[in-house]
Amino acid sequence: MDLFAQMAAKIAQLETELEETEARAESAEEQVKSLEEEVNMVGINLRSLENSETQASKREQDYDEKIKSLENEYGEIKDTSNFIQMSASVDEGSISLLEELENAKDEYEKVKQELENTMNELSEM
């Protein structure tokens, strides 16, 4: 019976080792599941970051295009402003000339009227 007792003790020891090994395996499986979930979350976060980077890059490109467009528009407006200022200067000069012309015309009409009056007086004599 000694052999039987040794075998029973060995079986009990092996059953204990089996239970410990099963517990470690179960713990390892839980860790694997936890790590798989973490990998999935990292993958989701990575895709989210890639999408955010793509959107940010698109916005940056749109802003660059808008800046170039606004710079071109600014240049055109500046050129137009310079042209208008030059035209205004020319117009001021033209207005001044027109005023002088109007004054000269009025002076001419006065002199003409005086001449006609003088001629009429002479012809009445």
TrEMBL record:
What family does this chain come from, according to its entry? Belongs to the tropomyosin family.
On whether Manganese is a keyword of this UniProt record, the answer is no
* Name of a matching Pfam family: Tropomyosin
| Record keywords, A-Z | Coiled coil
InterPro entries with a match to the protein in the record: Tropomyosin (IPR000533)
Coiled-coil features, chain-numbered ranges: 4-125
Looking at the keywords, is Transferase present? no
In terms of SUPFAM superfamilies, this protein maps to: Tropomyosin
**Name recorded for this polypeptide:** Tropomyosin
**Gene3D superfamilies in UniProt:** 1.20.5.170
